[in-house]
Design goal:
24-stranded antiparallel barrel; Immunoglobulin-like; single chain; globular; Copper Amine Oxidase, Chain A, domain 1; mainly beta; 869 residues
């Protein structure tokens, strides 16, 4: 990327504009006649000057353009196309240019003599819009848009050209691909950081608090209160979390207390994870009570992408936000539509996978429930082995004992096998359940899975992406007659799912068909659902129809229709109706008007429940403060009014300078970083007393957001996933002084649980060495360019830096840390040129000063070596 120094650019613009204003009458005298055509008007003259091209998504570069006395701008076609990597080849006589635009089939030819441009099957005539100067073809700026879809907007006052195109420029495409490769390298751990900051272990360290409060007041009834507090810390070198729910109308019991201790070290081989407390495990047997126990695994918590995807589409409340976590790492989020439908395309990852969904309501509420989804298959890399052991006591009436051991192994890139045994003491007769699994992925769009659980069931699953993101699922399970492990009394379960996103111009949508059949001895129970949801501009429509029937009886059919329309100025209107098709009557309908404001919204809704003859009017107001999400709502029905309030937030301790950070998001189970950039005066990499901090305005973190404080120079990066490594990168160009450099530019930081980790960022001071390389020819000294000057540490032969002399012989190098140095002309170059140099070397010292030391007089005199006779 070409850049002109800011000072030169500013001076040039000032002088140019001054010259235009001062010498306008003589413009035609100074300008030149455009050559290249005998038919060209002799009064058609131009001036040549450099302008700055600004390319969105790429950057900027300078080169010269022509500006005519008829206020027309001409741009060098070949030079511009080469800058943005568009194929451009000149003809043999230099009178034509050819190549292709966007795709190789879209060829073009610029014929200067013929005064025309052919792009594909189109031809553009150009009598006075193509000119030739010093052998180069220039094109009038507006013709670029007509012929190639490249718009050039010229700002004469600023001497800049904004370049935009209606297709992806090759240079931007290359940058995007390179960025994807870089991200994949980071994702795979292939990128090598300058510094790795590993876990800091503590016996105990207090860190995070989440809180939530809600209350409801109703006339002639008791008030309800619900309070939740969760505390996160580090205990015995692992994450420790405890949460308590309090309801004023409920006697406190063990179900209102949650606690877990979790240890992770992905660098270990035998045990990478350990947990103790209330566990949530995927099981074959049906367990409907909390389990207290412990588990160990050798599977990594790092999300490693495998082939294919796993679809999730289900319902929650309308307009709720749903977060998807894979192995406790947030990977995606979405918003449910007007009917509550949400859709995820979950990447299949290697190893044991735990999917969790968290639900956040538009009224500020956070659901305490977390839906744990058991992915029905496990995919392993080739020759990789994984195991898991867990055991505990179920808090049911009989205090059932539970144990489970499982293994998985990647046979090849298509095949993963696994198995194990599960024990639950409360299952009569068959308490032990051995099982085996097999997963086949012949290609990334097809997954086949089989499972056999002795004495319980045999199950198969086929999942196939047959068109873009359209997926077909066929699921079959055959249950052993009389089994009691799953509390499932059907003999067979058959499922068919078809999900199909679609896009037709401006219409985006999602269609889904679900069918389930349960086979019993006496009858077949059938249930089917058809869903269609689509967006068109500001309109969102969702229609869902449910069919249920047994054998040949008349089905029971209900249909829901939801409509949402986004008005101007932040207004939204939503309506919903439920219709009983079988009875041919409406059950309920609802309409809601919402107005969004900064950090919140307020709404009013009316609902008519025909089935229960009820009319409900609801007023709601939600506002997100920096420290809490709040909501107040009131509902009236037949003279009765219910009022509810809710608020939730978090506190993060150790936020730098003994501060406490408040947030409206959850902080427990997460971590953060505190970056301390400082000026390393003694260049030892340690933040010593008396060394000042440096205020930065830019830092790049993959997967995190940086908070820049006005009060201090600490960079805070909160709400990161614990036990995960993040890459933090710096750029010397972001420093306030040119003589400062980051000692390390790329850090890999492993986030500690429930706390902020301090990371010191040393910034070193560099000096500048300058001089001149002279050539002595017959006693006359002239500067000589392109002479290689190398810099060494004193008493060392290792090159620490090198530079080339400029055309006039000027030598300059900025970037030497404080120390003693030696400068020498490259010996190999001297030998090739048959030159001698005086003196052979220059010794100098770069002193440690805050603004950087400048050493001058690094001069050398080169002289042709006299031939020996």
């Amino acid at each position: 990327m070409l850049k002109v120094p800011v000072r030169f650019s500013f001076i040039f613009k000032c002088l140019f504009l001054l010259g235009i204003a001062w010498g306008l009458p003589t413009f035609e005298m100074m300008a030149q006649t455009i050559p290249g055509s005998n038919k060209q008007d002799s009064s058609f003259v131009f001036d040549e000057f450099p302008v700055l091209f600004l390319v969105e998504g790429y950057g900027s570069f300078y080169f010269d353009v022509l500006y005519s006395n008829k206020n027309a701008l001409y741009v060098n076609v070949e030079e511009l196309f080469k800058m943005v990597n568009i194929a451009c080849v000149a003809g043999q006589k230099g009178d034509s240019l050819g190549g292709f635009i966007e795709t190789e089939s879209q060829t073009y030819v610029i014929d200067f003599h013929g005064k025309q441009i052919r792009v594909g099957s189109k031809t553009f005539k150009s009598e006075n819009r193509l000119v030739k100067e010093t052998g180069a073809i220039y094109m009038e700026s507006s013709l670029f848009e007509e012929a190639f879809g490249i718009k050039l907007t010229f700002n004469f006052r600023a001497l800049t050209i904004i370049l935009k195109s209606n297709f992806e420029l090759p240079v931007i495409k290359l940058m995007r691909i390179e960025k994807m490769r870089t991200n994949m390298s980071k994702y795979k751990g292939e990128i090598v950081p300058d510094t790795i900051v590993n876990r800091h272990y503590h016996l105990f360290k207090f860190g995070m608090v989440d809180w939530a409060f809600s209350s409801t007041q109703a006339w002639k009834t008791q008030n309800d209160y619900h309070f939740t507090i969760a505390v996160g810390s580090e205990l015995l070198y692992g994450e420790a979390d405890i949460a308590v729910d309090y309801y004023n109308h409920q006697t406190f019991d063990y179900r209102q207390l949650q606690y877990i201790w979790r240890w992770v070290d992905n660098d270990k081989q035998i045990v990478k994870q350990a947990q103790a407390g209330k566990l949530s495990l995927p099981t074959i047997a049906f367990i409907n009570s909390p389990m207290i126990g412990a588990s160990v695994r050798n599977s990594s918590t790092i999300v490693r992408k495998a082939k294919g995807y796993y679809p999730i589409n289900a319902y929650t409340e309308p307009n709720w936000t749903v977060e998807l976590y894979i192995n406790n790492v947030l990977v995606d989020y979405t918003r449910a539509d007007a009917s509550g439908l949400y859709v995820f395309r979950v990447p299949i990852v290697y190893g044991n996978t735990t999917l969790k969904l968290k639900f956040y309501g538009p009224m500020g509420e956070e659901r305490t429930e977390e839906r744990t989804i058991n992915v029905p298959y496990t995919v392993m890399p080739v020759n990789e082995f994984e195991y898991g052991l867990s055991g505990g006591v179920v808090q049911d009436f009989s205090l059932s004992r539970f144990g489970k051991g499982e293994v998985n192994y990647g046979v090849n890139r298509f095949l993963t096998i696994g198995g194990g045994a599960e024990y639950l003491s409360s299952i009569p007769k068959n308490s032990l359940i051995p099982y085996g699994k097999i997963t086949i992925q012949p290609f990334n769009k097809l997954t086949l899975n089989g499972e056999y659980a002795h004495g319980v069931r045999t199950a198969t699953l086929l999942e196939y992406y047959f068109w873009k993101d359209a997926v077909l699922e066929i699921d079959y399970a055959n249950y052993v007659k009389g089994q009691l492990a799953t509390r499932f009394n059907a003999n067979e379960e058959r499922k068919f799912k078809l999900s199909m996103p679609f896009r037709l111009k401006k219409l985006n949508g999602f269609a889904k068909i679900d069918y389930q059949q349960l086979v019993y001895n006496e009858f077949h129970y059938n249930q089917g659902t058809g869903t269609l949801s689509f967006y068109y501009k500001q309109v969102n429509v969702n229609s869902s129809t449910l069919f249920t029937w047994t054998d040949h009886r008349i089905p029971f059919i209900t249909s829901d229709l939801s409509l949402s329309y986004r008005l101007k100025n932040g207004y939204n209107i939503r309506s919903m109706a439920q219709y009983d098709v079988s009875e041919r009557k409406f059950i309920t309908f609802k309409v809601e008007l919402e107005k969004r404001v900064l950090h919140g919204y307020y709404s009013v809704s009316y609902e008519r429940n025909i089935l229960f003859n009820g009319d409900f009017i609801t007023l709601n107001f939600k506002y997100d403060f920096p420290f809490a999400r709040t909501n107040v709502s009131a509902t009236g029905n037949k003279g009765n009014v219910n009022v509810s309030e809710s608020a939730q937030g978090s506190l993060a301790f150790g936020n730098g300078n003994n501060g406490v950070r408040s947030s409206n998001n959850s902080s427990v189970t997460k971590g953060g970083m505190l970056l301390y950039p400082f000026l390393d005066l003694n260049n030892n990499g340690i933040f010593d007393k008396g060394e000042p901090m440096v205020k930065l305005t830019a830092v790049r973190v993959m997967g995190g957001n940086v908070i820049f404080s006005k009060k201090d120079s600490i960079l805070r990066i909160p709400e990161l996933n614990a036990f995960i490594s993040y890459f933090v990168s710096f750029d010397d160009a972001d420093l306030p002084t040119i003589s400062w450099r980051f000692k390390n530019k790329l850090y890999q930081v492993l986030v500690d649980p429930n706390q902020f980790k301090r990371v010191d960022i040393p910034i070193i001071i560099v000096g500048e060495a300058s001089g001149t390389a002279y050539l002595n020819k017959e006693g006359i000294l002239n500067g000589i360019g392109r002479i290689i000057v190398k810099f060494y540490h004193k008493n060392s032969d290792k090159v620490v830096a090198q530079t080339l002399s400029e055309r006039d012989g000027y030598i300059d190098y900025m970037g030497l840390p404080p120390g003693e140095y030696v400068a020498r002309i490259d010996a190999g170059q001297l030998s090739n040129l048959n030159f001698t140099v005086d003196p052979p070397q220059r010794e100098f010292t770069i002193k440690a000063t805050e603004q950087g030391d400048i050493v001058e007089g690094i001069d050398f005199v080169l002289k042709p070596e006299v031939a020996k006779h």
